[in-house]
C-alpha cells in the first residue's frame, strides 16, 4: 500500500507537470489517497487554477462528498469575503495640469525645441538655486573673473567627452553663455560622479576659473529631491500594482493572470490571505496594456490577437473582473495605441469605452500624476530609462529602481535627446519632476523592483508576459506573475506570486 501511495505521488506530479500547472506538497498529500486524482486535477484546471493548493483540493473533496458547491463554500470558508476596502470610499484624484493628455500643443518645429530646452533649464536652475552656500552667476560674466578665483555656475551639458590627456570635458551652457568645464582625471571622486552626468542634463558646479573660457570643476550637484519622512496613513488600505499585460501577445500568461483575478476577488484563498487582499483599495497599472500592432518588425507572428481593438477588448475583459470598490489607474506604454514619444497621453476612450464608463477607473498619461489618500504619486511607463541605463555604467535593467533614483536626482525624466527614446517638445515641461513624489510607479522593464530614495518609494510592478526572444538575446530575465501590494499604513511591500519562482520564464 505504501509503495502504491509513493507511486501515486510521482504520478500526480507527472500529471500536473504535463498540464503545465503547479501543486503544493500538502495538496499532493491529499490527492495521493485518491484514485480519482486526475479527475480532481482536471476539474480544478478547468476553473483556471494554475496553483493547486491544499485548500482548493480540500474544497473539491468536500464538494464531491456533499455534491454541492455552495455548501462546500460555507464549510471551508467560515466567513465570506468581506473586504475592508469595500467599507470605505477612496480618496483619489488625478492631476491633469501635470500631464500632456488633451494638452499637446507642440508642432515639433525647431523653435519648439529651443523653447523646450530653455524652459527645462529655467525650471531646473530654479531648484538648484535653492542650495545653500551656492551663488551661481551667468556664464557670460565669467570673462571678467580673475584666473584662479572660485565660481559657482549652473549649466546644461551640451557635450561630454574624454580629452586626449584623460580628463573629462563638458561643454556647459546657460541661457546666454557657454564655457568648457574640465573634470581632472586624478580627481577620482569627481571622475566617478562624472559618469552620471548626461548630455542635456542640468547640473550645478563649484569650480575654479582656469582661463577665459575654461573652468576646473571642484564639485558637481544635481537638482535632487529633499530628504523627507515617508508618508503613512491611518487606514489599513493597500495599493496593488501591476504592469505590462501585453494583451494579444502569444506570450501573455493567461493562467497566472486568471489566478490573480481569482485572488483579488478573494476566491480560493485562505482566511489569512483574504484579510490581506481585502485591504486593496487601489490598483496602479503602468502601461503596455496590450502588445499593439506593428511595434517591431515581424510582430504579427508573435501575436495571438492581431487586431488592436480586440486586444483592448481582451484587456477590458480582465480589468472588468476586478472588484469595483477598487480604484484603478491606467497609464500607457510604448505598446499602447498612443504616440511612442514621451510624454505620452492617456490611451483614448475609443479603445476602452467600457473602462472609461466606470467611475472607479482613471486614465492618466505617462508620466501621469495623481493623489491617493494625500500621497503624491507619479506613474511613468519607463521608456527614457533605457537610454539612461545604456549611458550610466552602474545601472542595469534588472534594477530599474536605481535608474529611477538617478531620475529623481536629476529631477528630469528625459534622458539625452536623440538617443533611442523620442521626445515631443511640449509647451509645458511634463518631463521635469516639479513636485517631490511620495511614490513612483514604473513598468516597462518587466522586472519587479523596489526602492526608497529620500522618502520616495519606488515600485516597478513586473509583467504578465513570458520571456521574449528579444529578452533572451539581451540576457534579460523578466519576473512575470508577481503582484506587489504596498500597505499605506505600515509602508511595507508584500509580493504575491502567481507563478512559482523556479519556473523557467
Ligand atoms: Fe512591456
What is this structure's SSE topology?
Layout: H1 2-18, E1 22-23, H2 25-31, H3 37-45, E2 51-52, H4 54-66, H5 69-76, H6 84-87, E3 92-94, H7 110-128, E4 150-162, E5 168-174, E6 177-183, H8 188-194, E7 202-211, E8 214-221, E9 238-242, H9 254-264, H10 271-277, E10 280-286, H11 308-319, E11 327-331, H12 353-356, E12 361-363, E13 368-372, E14 375-380, H13 383-391, H14 400-410, E15 439-442, E16 449-453, E17 456-460, H15 469-474, E18 482-487, E19 493-497
The structure holds fe (ii) ion.
In words, what does this structure look like?
The protein is an alpha/beta fold and 505 residues long. The protein has 3 domains: 2-78, Helicase, Ruva Protein, domain 3; 92-104 and 227-497, 4-Layer Sandwich (Purple Acid Phosphatase, chain A, domain 2), CATH 3.60.21; 129-221, OB fold (Dihydrolipoamide Acetyltransferase, E2P) (Beta Barrel). 29% of the residues lie in helices and 21% in strands. It has helices at residues 2-18, 25-31, 37-45, 54-66, 69-76, 84-87, 110-128, 188-194, 254-264, 271-277, 308-319, 353-356, 383-391, 400-410, 469-474, and strands at residues 22-23, 51-52, 92-94, 150-162, 168-174, 177-183, 202-211, 214-221, 238-242, 280-286, 327-331, 361-363, 368-372, 375-380, 439-442, 449-453, 456-460, 482-487, 493-497. The strands form 4 sheets. The chain has a 6-stranded mixed sheet with strand order 3-13-14-15-17-16, with helices on one face. Strands 12-11-10-9-18-19 form a 6-stranded mixed sheet. Strand 7 (202-211) and strand 8 form a beta hairpin. Helix 2 (25-31) packs parallel to helix 4 and helix 4 packs across helix 5 (69-76). The two termini are 38 Å apart. 40% of the residues are buried. The structure holds fe (ii) ion. Fe (ii) ion is lined by residues 244, 246, 288, 333, 335, 444, 446.
Amino acid at each position: 500500500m505504501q509503495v502504491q501511495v509513493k507511486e501515486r505521488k510521482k504520478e500526480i506530479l507527472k500529471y500536473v507537470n504535463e498540464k503545465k500547472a503547479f501543486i503544493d506538497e500538502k495538496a499532493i498529500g491529499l490527492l495521493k489517497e485518491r484514485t480519482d486524482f486526475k479527475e480532481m486535477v482536471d476539474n480544478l484546471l478547468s476553473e483556471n487554477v494554475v496553483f493547486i493548493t491544499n485548500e482548493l483540493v480540500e474544497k473539491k473533496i468536500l464538494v464531491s462528498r456533499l455534491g454541492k458547491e455552495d455548501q462546500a463554500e460555507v464549510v471551508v470558508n467560515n466567513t465570506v469575503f468581506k473586504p475592508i476596502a469595500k467599507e470605505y470610499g477612496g480618496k483619489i484624484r488625478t492631476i491633469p495640469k501635470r500631464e500632456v493628455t488633451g494638452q499637446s500643443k507642440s508642432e515639433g518645429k525647431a523653435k519648439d525645441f529651443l523653447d523646450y530646452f530653455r524652459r527645462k533649464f529655467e525650471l531646473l536652475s530654479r531648484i538648484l538655486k535653492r542650495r545653500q552656500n551656492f551663488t551661481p552667476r551667468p556664464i557670460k560674466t565669467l570673462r571678467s573673473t580673475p584666473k584662479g578665483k572660485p565660481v559657482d555656475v549652473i549649466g546644461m551639458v551640451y557635450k561630454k567627452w574624454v580629452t586626449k590627456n584623460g580628463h573629462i570635458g563638458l561643454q556647459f551652457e546657460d541661457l546666454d553663455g557657454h564655457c568648457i568645464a574640465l573634470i581632472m582625471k586624478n580627481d577620482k571622486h569627481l571622475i566617478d560622479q562624472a559618469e552620471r552626468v548626461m548630455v542635456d542634463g542640468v547640473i550645478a558646479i563649484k569650480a575654479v576659473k582656469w582661463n577665459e573660457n575654461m573652468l576646473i570643476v571642484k564639485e558637481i550637484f544635481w537638482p535632487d529631491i529633499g530628504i523627507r519622512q515617508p508618508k503613512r496613513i491611518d487606514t489599513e488600505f493597500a495599493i496593488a500594482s501591476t504592469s505590462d499585460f501585453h494583451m494579444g501577445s502569444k506570450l501573455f500568461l493567461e493562467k497566472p493572470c486568471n489566478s490573480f483575478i481569482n485572488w483579488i476577488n478573494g476566491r480560493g484563498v485562505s482566511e489569512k490571505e483574504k484579510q490581506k487582499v481585502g485591504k486593496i483599495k487601489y490598483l496602479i497599472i503602468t502601461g503596455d496594456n496590450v502588445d499593439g500592432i506593428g511595434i517591431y518588425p515581424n510582430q504579427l507572428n508573435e501575436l495571438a490577437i492581431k487586431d488592436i481593438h480586440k486586444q483592448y477588448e481582451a484587456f477590458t475583459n480582465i480589468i472588468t473582473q476586478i472588484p469595483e470598490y477598487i480604484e484603478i489607474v491606467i497609464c500607457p506604454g510604448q505598446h499602447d495605441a498612443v504616440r511612442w514619444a514621451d510624454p505620452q497621453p492617456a490611451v483614448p476612450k475609443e479603445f476602452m469605452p467600457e473602462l472609461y464608463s466606470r467611475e472607479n477607473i482613471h486614465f492618466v498619461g505617462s508620466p501621469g500624476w495623481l493623489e491617493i489618500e494625500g500621497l503624491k504619486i507619479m506613474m511613468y511607463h519607463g521608456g527614457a530609462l533605457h537610454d539612461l541605463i545604456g549611458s550610466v555604467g552602474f545601472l542595469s535593467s534588472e534594477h530599474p529602481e536605481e535608474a529611477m533614483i538617478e531620475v529623481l536626482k536629476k529631477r528630469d525624466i528625459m534622458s539625452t535627446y536623440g538617443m533611442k527614446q523620442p521626445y515631443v517638445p511640449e509647451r509645458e515641461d511634463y518631463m521635469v519632476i516639479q513636485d517631490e513624489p511620495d511614490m513612483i510607479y514604473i513598468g516597462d522593464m518587466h522586472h519587479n523592483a523596489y526602492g526608497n530614495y529620500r522618502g520616495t518609494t519606488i515600485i516597478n510592478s513586473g509583467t504578465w508576459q513570458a520571456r521574449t526572444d528579444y529578452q533572451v538575446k539581451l540576457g534579460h530575465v523578466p519576473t512575470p506573475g508577481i503582484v506587489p501590494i504596498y500597505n499605506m499604513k505600515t509602508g511595507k511591500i508584500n509580493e504575491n506570486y502567481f507563478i512559482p519562482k523556479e519556473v523557467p520564464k
